[in-house]
Structure formats: structure tokens, C-alpha cells
Design goal:
alpha/beta; six-stranded parallel β-sheet; TIM Barrel
């Protein structure tokens, strides 16, 4: 049984009513923007309405998504090819129209052993370097604070190279090598144990090892961000204690609000991260937001409120943990395989995405929701990208 693309149904229903309208359409402080479907471009685009304040904030701010692969589905990656020549004009427009200036494209790298993981990591980093080089009209690699400052309004999409593991660091010199190849963020562990520390779903969390301490020290030295989004609780706290530079949760949520999901962070961990000067990117993955239905965008915004009240709005950002279209419209076989690759503790439900933040213009919906909650323009600009811009500048020097 295939996964029915619900957004395709909504687009088809909206098509008859909205096809005659152009975008943007101004009406008493409101703007209507097209949300085009690259998955099924034959369907009429939906016209979504946003406030002019929302549109001005998104289009006028540096927007950073600190976890957003360009494409999750392997079938799309294969169609694009390593030089991205298979990307359609509609897909290119979606990237530009999303108004996301920087995509941190880190993924979890698998492999049978550490040598296999290292080989896969090298292929991943070199592959992105090749793709960026092949499409300089569309993408630019983000290496420095100066690159972050220049990318907004440049007409190009910034690619921030990271990995959701540090298993490829077999020696301290490997940190230097990967930094030289363009890697600027490294998650210490994925969900399981490695030579550095423990992952969020490992049975026992022994914390950061002696080798891990040395790796963190070298990352601090070269200016590579330490990310512990998938790390276990003890490993997370240890990293915050060991690192001399700010520690990031590029994509996580509050455990208090999630119902205890192991991939989310305790209040103790959030306070420890903030004490380093770090920033936490909030993810809209359904089971990381709430452990029961209904789970809505308002539940997602509750996590922003919780972290703001706990440590301050300057420690908030966005790490969606999805590509532009999310998980639930993936091909059925790839969707099933993705769910099967994780432990039962991930607690997948029928859906992974949250309606409203599962489409190319999700930053507009997020901004509108933050406006409803009373966040100021300054606070929203910080959440959209300013806070991560600040902390990455501190880490990278």
C-alpha cells in the first residue's frame, strides 16, 4: 500500500479556486504566495496567505536551517545525479522560493565497521563538494562567518557541510583533514556508541571517552562546531563541560514536552548547552514534539516557548530535520525502509511530519506562528538564523 501524498490532494482541491490568482497578491496587509509541488508539478499550486510582517521578516532575514538535507529520498538523489543535472527548473525555484539561505545538510553515515563509515563519510563530503562545484549558479559552500554574511540576497543557496557522526575521526589529524575538505560541523555520535561517546538510543551511556576528549579539543582548535543532537544524556553533558567553544544542538527538542523521547534533551542538558553559549535548533519531527495526537504546529511552537523561558531566546534556532517536502510523501518503499532502520524507542507513528512545517515555504508558517505567540521582530530574526550566525562565527573564529 503506497503512502498517499496528502499535500497533492490539498493542491488539487485548491487548484480550482486559486488557479486564477497571481502571487504575490496584496490584500489588507496579507500576501499570497505559491507553494509549488515538484513531486507533481501538473497540479495547480496552492496559494497560501501570510501577513506582510511575516513575509518581510523571512525575506529580509538571514535564514538558516541547521538540519535540512537537500533530498531525503534516494530516488530523488539518484535522479539529480552527482552534478545535479537532473534537478528540474521547478525544483530549483523551490529552493530559491523557500527563502532558506543556508542548508546544513548533515546525515547519519552508516557502515559495517569504522573503516566503512570513514569511507562513506569521505564520499559524502567529496560528493557535496563536487555538486557545489558543478552548480555554482545555485549553490555555494559555507566555510566562514564571512560566507554567512554574504549569502543572503546573493541569489545562491548556502550549503553547510556537516556529518551526524564523528566516527570518521580515527585520529586527531582526521579532524584537520575534514576541516580542510570543508566540514564545519560534526555531531559526536549518532544514535549508537562509537569511540567518542554514546548515542541517544544506546542501552548504556558511558559519556565521552578519553579519545573523545581529544577529538573535541582538536575540533575546538580548528574551528569545527561540536554538535550533540543525537548524543546520549551523559555524553551531551560531558561535551558541554569539555568543549572550550559553544556546543550546538542543531536539531532537537525539549524532553519535558516530547513525553520523554530519548532523542530530545533534558532541561539540565539545555541549560548546559546555553551555558557554553550554544544554540538549539528546534525540529518539527512529529514524535520529537509530542507523544500523542493531535500533534500540531502549535505544539511545535510550545518547544520554542519552553527553551526561551528556560535559557533565553538567544539560544533558539531552527533545525527542521527534513528536506523541503518532509518524510510522509516519500515513496512507500523508501518510507518503510527509513522507519525500519531505527530502534523501537524512536516510537514512529502513522506520520512523521507536522502539517504546516512540512513544505517548501515552512519558514513562513513558522514565522507566522511565532508572531501569533508574541515574539518580537528581533527575536524572530534571531530564531530564523541570527542566533546560529552569531554562534557559528564564535566557533569558527
Amino acid at each position: 500500500m503506497s503512502v498517499l501524498p496528502r499535500r497533492a490532494i490539498l493542491r488539487a482541491a485548491a487548484g480550482a479556486a486559486g488557479a486564477a490568482l497571481a502571487a504575490p497578491f496584496l490584500n489588507l496587509g496579507r500576501v499570497r504566495l505559491h507553494a509549488r509541488s515538484s513531486a507533481n508539478p501538473a497540479l495547480s499550486p496552492v496559494l497560501q496567505e501570510y501577513s506582510t510582517r511575516c513575509v518581510d521578516l523571512v525575506t529580509g532575514s538571514l535564514v538558516i536551517d541547521m538540519l535540512a538535507p537537500l533530498a531525503i529520498a534516494r530516488s530523488i538523489q539518484q535522479r539529480w545525479g552527482p552534478d545535479l543535472s537532473g534537478m528540474t527548473a521547478a525544483e530549483e525555484r523551490e529552493f530559491r522560493d523557500s527563502r532558506i539561505d543556508v542548508f546544513h545538510i548533515a546525515v547519519g553515515i552508516g557502515g559495517r565497521d569504522s573503516a566503512d563509515q570513514a569511507r562513506n563519510s569521505l564520499l559524502f563530503v567529496s560528493g557535496y563538494n563536487a555538486s557545489i562545484a558543478a552548480r555554482p549558479d545555485l549553490f555555494v559552500r559555507i566555510d566562514s562567518a564571512g560566507d554567512l554574511a554574504r549569502v543572503h540576497g546573493s541569489g545562491r543557496i548556502g550549503i553547510l557541510i556537516g556529518l551526524q557522526t564523528s566516527s570518521h575521526f580515527h585520529s586527531l589529524d582526521d579532524v584537520n583533514m575534514y576541516h580542510g575538505l570543508g566540514q564545519r560541523v560534526s555531531q559526536l555520535t549518532y544514535n549508537s556508541r562509537n569511540m567518542i561517546g554514546n548515542g541517544a538510543t544506546e542501552r548504556v551511556d558511558g559519556g565521552v571517552s578519553d579519545f573523545g576528549m581529544a577529538i573535541i579539543g582538536r575540533m575546538n582548535e580548528v574551528g569545527m562546531a561540536v554538535d550533540v543532537s543525537h548524543s546520549g544524556d551523559r555524553t551531551t553533558l560531558d561535551a558541554c563541560e569539555i568543549s572550550s567553544r559553544p556546543v550546538l544542538f542543531t536539531h532537537s527538542n525539549s524532553r519535558v514536552l516530547s513525553g520523554g523521547h530519548p532523542r530530545t534533551k533534558t532541561d539540565e542538558a539545555i541549560r548546559a548547552m546555553a551555558a557554553t553559549g550554544g544554540v538549539m535548533g528546534m525540529t518539527g519531527v512529529r514524535m520529537f514534539v509530542k507523544d500523542r495526537e493531535p500533534t500540531t504546529i502549535e505544539d511545535y511552537i510550545d518547544h520554542f516557548d519552553h527553551v526561551r523561558d528556560l535559557v533565553g531566546v538567544e539560544h533558539l534556532g531552527v533545525g527542521s530535520d527534513v528536506d523541503l517536502h518532509g518524510y510522509d510523501d516519500m515513496p512507500a518503499d523508501e518510507y518503510a525502509a527509513l522507519k525500519a532502520a531505527y530502534k523501537d524507542s524512536y516510537a514512529f507513528r502513522d506520520k512523521i511530519d507536522i502539517e504546516g512545517v512540512d513544505h517548501p515555504k515552512r519558514m513562513f508558517d513558522l514565522t507566522e506562528a511565532l508572531i501569533r505567540r508574541g515574539y518580537t521582530d528581533e527575536h524572530i530574526r534571531g530564531i530564523l538564523g541570527g542566533n546560529f550566525q552569531r554562534v557559528l562565527g564564535e566557533i569558527w573564529g
